[in-house]
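check this one:
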Amino acid sequence: NETYKIGFSVYYTVDEVGAMLLDTMKAGALEAGVDLLVNDANYDQNAQNQAIEQWILEGVDGVILAPCDFYGVKGALDALKEANIPVITLNPALAGEGSAVVMSECTEQGALAAKLLVDYLLANNSEMKGTVVFQTLPFVHPNAATRAKGFKDAFIPYPEITIVELTGISPEDHYTAFEGAIANYGKDLIGAFGLYSSATIGMMNANKASKANIPLTSIDNDKVILEGIYNGEVLGSCCYSSTSPAFWCMSQMVNLLNGVEIPSAMFYPNTNVTKDNVAEMFEFYYNGKTLADYIAGVVN
C-alpha cells in the first residue's frame, strides 16, 4: 500500500544487454507500482556516484546499481550504507557492501564459450597450435576477469596455443584491435573470442571486411550476434537472459522494502547457443520475437 521510490543506475545502454536491463527495470517498476529514477552512467563512475548522491538527498527508499567501476563504486556504496538505504547490485562490486547481488557464473560463461572454439578446432583436425585472441575491457570488471579465466583455463591442455588479450570499449575499438591482430598474426591466428557483445560485434565486422574467416566464439546474446550465429559468422555464444536479472533485482528490492527476507545472492543460468538452437533461443531471449522476422527487418 506504499509507493516506493527506487533509483536504478545502469553502467551503459549502448549495447543490447544494458538497454534490455533498463527496459525491463522500467517495466518491472510499472508492474510493482514503483516510482523509478534512472541514471545511464555511460561507463562514467563519477556520473554514477553523482546520481546516487542526488538520490540520497531525495530520500529514495532503495537503489539498484549496475556498477561501472567495481572498485570506484565503493564511495557510493559507503554513502548508501551511511544513509541506511538498501542497495542491490546487478553484478558484484569488488569493494563496499550491499544488501544483495544478482549475478551470473562468469567463469562458467568463459569455459562454455571456449568449448565452442575448442570443439570446432578439434572437429576440423587442427594441430592445436597457434594464436587465439580474446577481447575484453581496458579496466577491472569482475565479470570480464572471471570470463577470461574460464576461457583461458580451457586451453591449458593445449600448451602450443598462445592466448593474447586485446582491449577496447566500443565495437569500433574492437574492430581496430582485431584488424591489427589479423594483420600481425596472419595464418597463425586460429581463433578469437568476444568476451562481451561489443567485442564480438567489432570482430564480426573486421572478420567480414578482411575476409579472414577466423573462427569466432562469444558471450552475450545481442540480436546481431544471434543472426551471426545463424549465418555462420559466429560459432556460437554463451548466452543468458538480459531480462531476468533486472526483474529479479526489482522484485528483490520490493520484497526487501516490504520486510521479506531475501537471498543474499541470485545466479541466472548460462546456455550455449549455436546454429542448432539459435532460432529457439532468439524467441526465448526476445519475448516471442523470431529470428526470421529480425533477419527480414520486420522487428528491430
In short: Residues 106-240+274-295 form a domain with the Rossmann fold fold (CATH 3.40.50.2300). The mean pLDDT is 94.
